[in-house]
Amino acid sequence: MLTVKSMLELDKKAGIYKPGRGYFKNPSRIDLEKAVKGDSIMFGGKNASGTFMYVLNADGRIIFGARRNPYNSKGRSPHPTLLGGKDPIVQAAGLLTIRGGKIVSFDDQSGHFRPSSKSMDKVETALRKIYNINHKLFSSTFIWRKK
Questions:
Q1: In a domain? residue 75
Q2: Model confidence pTM above 0.85
Q3: What highest taxon heads this organism's lineage (predicted)?
Q4: Residue 26 lies in a domain
Q5: 113: phi > 0 → left, psi -120 to 50 → alpha, else beta; which?
């Protein structure tokens, strides 16, 4: 899925997307599997805590990060910046809540990609892969979606 055209136009006006470069790469982005240290998900050198934006890239990997704009500390940093480039393509996008290094929840809230509910099946597949390797990365309150 590509960025929604109306959002792309807004990003061009705001300087988030530049014709020669495309979207900048968010400096906080990290592959979820690479953020695992023992039984915790790390972010910024400590147990991740907060609500992070995420994308499921074309390879089926979850990339997450904070909303950080390297060019403007008060500027926007939408979902496409997790991949950067002219035409970032994702399978899904939304918000991932992590508390104390444990995954609490995920959703499909992305105004830039506007994923369908079917995209959530792909995210759940990626999360189940991680769960099967180490279920301790998930909060005891985590609830799998009902199908």
A1: yes
A2: yes
A3: Bacteria
A4: yes
A5: alpha
The residue to which tokens 């109306």 are assigned? 6
**Residues whose CB falls within 8 Å of the CB of residue 59, separated by 6 or more in sequence, listed in order:** none
What's the number of domains the chain is made of? Answer: 1
Asked, for residue 144, whether it belongs to a domain, the answer is no
CA distance 65 to 49: 11
Which residue range is the domain that position 60 belongs to? 5-137
Residue 47 included in any domain = yes
Is residue 72 predicted with pLDDT exceeding 90? Answer: no
Strands 50-57 and 17-18: unpaired
Rounded CA separation 57/31 (Å) = 10
Average pLDDT over residues 67-90: 90
Residue in 126, 122, 83, 81 with CA at minimum distance from that of residue 103: 126
